[in-house]
Description:
Order of helices and strands: HHH
Distance between the termini: 49 Å
Shape: globular
Helix content: 55-70%
Oligomer: single chain
Strand content: under 5%
Amino acid sequence: xxxxxxxxxxxxxxxxxxxxxxxxxxxxxxxxxxxxxxxxxxxxxxxxxxxxxxxxxxxxxxxxxxxxxxxxx
Length: 73
């Protein structure tokens, strides 16, 4: 599957995107766009591309996860 930016997303990318959308209760298209943008950013500097799925999903998850405010004691 290709995105609007003409990025070829492999089945493992699509699985991660769907999982992230479910985990974060975000629209699939929003997650797909953010994932594709992050994949391009990380992939452009990567010498070894074996871990791009893991690194990209971690970054996207961190962006989509609501920030946790420190507890006031």
